[in-house]
């Protein structure tokens, strides 16, 4: 997928996020924060040319891919850790019995950190996410 397509998807999910309530929609928020992060990370890897535009890495494979390929250079470890933390929020709230809007707020914090780094990578010559 091209960088601009990833950014459009991230933007669409971000607009949806603004319509949701942390106490009522925490499962969807966690999923959407994860998907925005995934699109931004893929766009950043495309920008650095460490990932071809005809290939994308799924959210649950990003941590391993970054660890193995160092696809975001100096940011690989940090982004990988943030993505792993974000992934770990999902099981209890998306699949399990967890009912906690605070978990969605934590997911938002992880996204904010991922977004900040990805904007550094993408921002200069591309549209900012």
Strands, count: 0
- Span from first to last CA? 15 Å
Shape: globular
Q: Stretches where pLDDT falls below 50 for ≥5 residues?
A: 125-129
Q: What is the averaged pLDDT score? A: 92
Based on secondary structure, the structural category is mainly alpha
Counted up, domains total 1
Number of helices: 5
Order of helices and strands: HHHHH
Relative helix content = 55-70%
Report the radius of gyration as a whole number of Å: 14 Å
Largest sheet: none
Strand residue percentage: under 5%
Annotate the secondary structure layout:
Blueprint: H1 3-18, H2 26-47, H3 62-69, H4 76-95, H5 101-122
Helix pairs in contact: 1-2, 2-4, 2-5, 3-4, 4-5
Characteristics of this structure?
about 130 residues; mainly alpha; 5 helices; about 70% helix; globular; disordered C terminus
Can you put this structure into words, describing what you see?
By secondary structure, the chain is mostly helical. The chain has one domain. It has 5 helices and no strands. Helix 2 packs antiparallel against helix 4 and helix 3 (62-69) packs antiparallel against helix 4. The radius of gyration is 14 Å and the shape is globular. Mean pLDDT is 92; it is low at 125-129.
What's this, in brief?
This protein has helices at residues 3-18, 26-47, 62-69, 76-95, 101-122. It is mainly alpha-helical and 129 residues long.
């Amino acid at each position: 997928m091209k960088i601009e397509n990833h950014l459009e998807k991230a933007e669409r999910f971000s607009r949806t996020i603004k319509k949701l309530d942390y106490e009522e929609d925490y499962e969807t928020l966690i999923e959407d924060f994860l998907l925005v992060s995934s699109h931004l990370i893929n766009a950043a890897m495309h920008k650095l040319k460490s990932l071809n535009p005809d290939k994308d890495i799924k959210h649950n494979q990003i941590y391993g891919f970054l660890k193995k390929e160092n696809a975001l250079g100096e940011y690989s470890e940090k982004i990988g850790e943030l993505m792993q933390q974000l992934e770990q929020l999902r099981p209890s709230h998306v699949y399990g019995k967890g009912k906690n809007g605070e978990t969605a707020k934590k997911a938002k914090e992880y996204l904010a950190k991922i977004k900040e780094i990805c904007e550094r990578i993408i921002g200069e010559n591309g549209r900012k996410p």
